[in-house]
Amino acid sequence: MPKLLWREAIETTTIRTVRDSGAPLTARISPKPRVATLGSIAGRESGVLVVLLVVFGALTLLSDDFLTANNLANLARQVSIYGIIAIGQLLVILTGGIDLSTGSILGLSGAVTAQLIVDGVPVVPAIALGLLIGAVLGLFTGFVVTRFKLPPFIATLGMLGIARGIVLVITNANTVQGLPDSFQQLANGTVFGVPNLLILFVLIAAAAAFVLRRTVFGRYVYAVGSNAEAARLAGVPVRLVTVCVYVIAGLLSAVGGILLTSRLGAGVPTAGTGFELQAIAACVIGGASLSGARGSAIGAACGALLIGVLNNGGNLLAVNSFSLQIAIGALILVAVAFDQLNNRAAAKE
User: Fold this and answer.
1) Which of 242, 261, 272 has its CA nearest to residue 166?
2) N or C, which end of the chain has less CB nearby within 10 Å?
3) pLDDT-wise least confident of 9-18, 51-60, 171-180
4) Facing residues of 26 across strands?
């Protein structure tokens, strides 16, 4: 990977010129002292971490039910599905794109998997086919974006309508019921008291963090989002990387759809409506920049957790759901404004 694509931390220095009587000019280089801040330690996730700790502490004091085992288990199950699709959304955002079809792909994959199981297909092959649907739809979206140069917003908006229309036609807008207990146990079961959904979410988030930080593919993703043309000239397969991130986003949306279907015990054709906005919000709140190349899997996971905690806390405190939407919307605006201020400050340095 060419070094010109990376901006590694370089210690700043101050050059002082000292004139001695009868002696030539000499330059003394002294390092400029750095002040350790939360941002330098925790990175772009520092803001969401602070807000998350404050909200978590406030809900602990305001509600006796917040820290109960039952509530925390429900919170983990709710956050996990949002977090999984948010990680897929993050990969697309890092390349400078956006995916509005994640919610519809989630609903289609979940409903198709449920229908296959009800029709007698074994659970494992049905899940595999559901995952394949998500990957194929993501592949199609990536192909349209790279081959026909359609803006990601338009391409994924079209896929949103296509996927939602397909699931409504297949199910005739009816809920698919009669799923076996073995399938429902996938999302509702626990391992040593820890919900299965939370375990899957943590594993996916950890895998995404490793890929983005430690692999060549992760570097390529950031390079494409930073400057696609410069990345292409440096030898990065821009088209392939772009298609891959949409495939991964579609695959993770299918994972979320299957898990949601398992949790509900039914295939709901309208499931996932609005989930794409929640995923984008989680990424932005977690420090991702919609201009690309900035963000992390841990940040997206923390953003999803913050949204889940706000919704859960609002329910416990009987806060109007519309007020919660206002709060989350304001939080998104603050996060984007903070990112813009950071970019301007960095540009002046």
Assistant:
1) 272
2) C
3) 9-18
4) 18
Interval 77-109: pLDDT, tens: 999 999 999 999 999 999 999 999 999 999 999
3-state DSSP call for residue 267?
Answer: strand
pLDDT > 70? residue 60:
yes
Q: With DSSP H G I counted as helix, E B as strand and the rest as coil, what are the percentages for the chain, rounded to 5?
A: 70, 5, 25
Strands (E) located in the chain = 13-18, 26-31, 190-191, 194-195
- CA-CA distance, 109 to 86, in Å (whole number)? 17
In this structure, which amino acid lies at residue 133?
A: I
**Single-letter amino acid, residue 88:** G
Q: Give the pLDDT confidence score for residue 71 in this predicted structure.
A: 94
**Is there a contact between 84 and 204 (Cβ–Cβ < 8 Å)?**
yes
Task: Note the pTM of the prediction, 2 decimals.
Answer: 0.86
Nearest of 288, 276, 273, 274 to residue 332 by alpha carbon: 288
The label of the residue with tokens 């978590």 reads: 56
Query: H helices then E strands: how many in the chain?
Result: 14, 4
- Mean pLDDT, all residues of the chain: 87
Distance separating the N- and C-terminal Cα atoms of the chain: 26
Instruction: Give me the phi and psi of 340, to 5 degrees please.
Output: -65, -40
- Take residue 275 and report the two structure tokens written for it: 């989930």
For residue 203, the surrounding DSSP H or E stretch is helix 196-214
Which of 45-54, 133-142, 185-194 shows the lowest per-residue confidence on average (mean pLDDT)?
45-54
The CA distance from 335 to 111, in Å, is: 34
* Calculated CA dihedral for residues 263, 85, 303, 320, nearest 10 degrees: -50
